[in-house]
Amino acid sequence: MPTNAAPTRPLAIHKISATCVSPIPWWCYRQQLESRAQPRTMNQFSEYTILGERHFRLLHLLPRKETADTEPPMIECKLEVAHLDLENSFEALSYVWGSPNETRPILLEGHVFHCTKSLHTALSRLVLDDQTRVLWVDAICIDQSDLDERAEQVKHMRHIYQEAQSVLSFLGDPFDGIGAAIDYLCAAADDASIHLNPKYEHFLSVNNMDASSDQLSEYIVRLFNLPWWKRVWTVQEFCLAKAGSFYCGEHMVPVNKMTQGVANLLQHAATCCMADDLAFGRSYALADSDVELDVCDALLRLEQLQQAAELQPEALFHNTLLMFRIRLATDPRDKIYGLFGLAPYIGDLVTMDYAAPIEQVYETFTVAYINRRKNVHLLSALGGNRALPNLASFAPDWTIRPSDGWSTDEGWMLTLFNRAINNRAFFNASASTTAEWEYLGPGRARANAFIFDTICVAELEQINPLLLWETTQGWLKRIHELVKKRTIEAKSVTIEEDGDSYTREDHRRFLRTLCGDLIHGEDGIEEELVGDSPERIAMLEHWWAILMSSDLPSNVSLNTNDLQRSVYTVSQGRSFVITEKGYMGWADNHVQVGDFVAILAGGVAPFILSPAVGADELGKAASGDGTCTRRYRILGDAYIHGIMQGEAFRFAGRETGQFDELDLV
């Protein structure tokens, strides 16, 4: 059913499954953690042979046997050892493992092998009547009880999925209405000109349902909320495929057909067909899900996969991690390992080690990746809640999963991705300097950076679309008055004449800060820099006048909505901040008065650091004179108006590239 319930704000750290986090510092108990490592299958299958270098196994799914029994015969399979460098003819399976406690028996090399229910369902659907089918299935073709083999075979998955004749993707269990959802997508694929909106004479409809139907909308949302769309491993399995098909129950549709249908629907939604009264624009909360989606959000799950497939392997790995961080993995290490196949150029960056503590994997990868790329773009994934209490602040927490919490919701995670793309396109706070980090051991790293300023005001944003307009308007007025007061106070100290005035230029600086100096361009999608453009500044002033009026609904225009979206992008999950030197901007919502604005080498945006030292050290830490060992926690990147293009070096009296060494924990 559709819902518009506003999410609540969770605490900075929340619990996740005990199988995912160690309750004690990981560096103290590595041996204990290694001994606790569990295989990913419930079988102790004794027929596996040791694989040679660049060898892998293929599964031969034998033909269905005729039987007089009412019960279907047991599925029979055999294993073949093949070489990666030889020509092999096979299909690869892409599916979700499902619960290890819900299993079904098959015969593997004449022995009973218990596979998960979801795998059994897939094999039952694929078995042929008159010939053997050759497949690659990770749960069977890899000895999951052998962590060394598992790590070695994961390295080959890029090659395996690229070489497969087809990748067969099993989305999950079917539901009532899946046929209508698939029919609608296929009809959209067949005719790119057909509209969604019933106001047009030529519009898309199946079974007397169209874009105004809540029932059809919920069917489509449910289709793209099936388990396959939520798992991290399925990303590379889709992106590397030559060809493929989606399966769900008795339904099968070619990947290219569904992809075309989604593309056509999104094109119409973006250009001519969306309206507030359409069901396609409403969010739906499903009984078996903890996130809400509207139809366009749901369709984007396939659109993003297609974009990633077209970009790889040239896509930057930190972009891939950010784009798909909402996806889940049984083993949290696979939030990184499971995407390595899309980035062959970093294959030697870290050693895949499934016995290593999660925190170690995330921390060492972060430092190694920063040093490889010579920048800190990966740190744009910081911010919001963290689920691993022992993870160092400089390492993104990839275990965070989507939920209805404001900073773990799917929209917020995608906002981080969009914000990171915008930052790299328009800003250069560190003046193209090179990041040089050193891993100092568990929970510690050293970075070249410097403290620039200190936060003196932090106000949690209240301008997101889930709030009442009166709340947002009141908050904006209060922030505006606070900025005016601070501006006048700063002028009274530095300017002898007219020191009590708040000028039009000051107001424009405030407006540019609110939108992060970016607004949506004429296409409504790509951002454009406001800068000193008279036309864009005039748009901002018009937008502000509308926001402050008492009859907002009658004054909303397309440009106003585009500006509002720009403000949401820069502000979501953040607080409005003012610094001691008079700068203002947006920083992670956990920022507090007394935290620092810092420039990290290789960063396109400033970062907020929280002191991890005693109160008597704060003065030394803020001085930036290098006379004490300083430790900081990173909260995340920030938008600080006036220092987004490398100006901080000059304003701090430093040569460009002149950094201190800061210890991060």
UniProtKB/TrEMBL annotation:
The Heterokaryon incompatibility domain, residue ranges: 90-237
| Superkingdom, natural source | Eukaryota
User: What InterPro entries does its record include?
Assistant: HET, HetReg/Transcr_Mod
One Pfam family cited in the UniProt record for this chain: HET
Transmembrane ranges, per UniProt, are: none
- What name has this protein been given in UniProt? Heterokaryon incompatibility protein-domain-containing protein
In its UniProt entry, the species of origin is given as Podospora appendiculata
